[in-house]
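Reopening this ticket.

The earlier resolution said the output was attached, but the attachment link was broken on my side. Pasting everything inline this time so it's all in one place.
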Amino acid sequence: MLSLQWVVAGQVTVEFTYHSNRMREVTMDQKVATENLGVDLAQSFRSFVADMREATFLGELTDVPEIFQDGNSVKLRFVIESNAMLEVEPVGRGVTANDQWRQAYRVKLVHIYRNGIVAI
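Inline output:
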């Protein structure tokens, strides 16, 4: 599993892991994001990721996700455009109930959905 943690102004922020190399590349490279998602969705995605990087915990994000249980893990889907969502999985001990995701500081970027279909 690939992992990356950002330090902003001396403060540790949300740590990312990636479901796939493709998700990592789309997250890290604007050109790859634009090629795979188109200009508007790539910009919306990168803007949301920037907001996540500035947060210390997922609960600091102003957007409220759709929350669902997937086996033993909790998955969150954040709207990043009217027809697109980012699915993430909070990572860590104890993050298995729907109300515990807010304290998570590690998150796996899982999928980007466009029109209900996995785009990444």
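Reporter confirms the inline version is readable. The chain has one domain: 2-118. The helical segments are 21-28, 30-37, 39-54.
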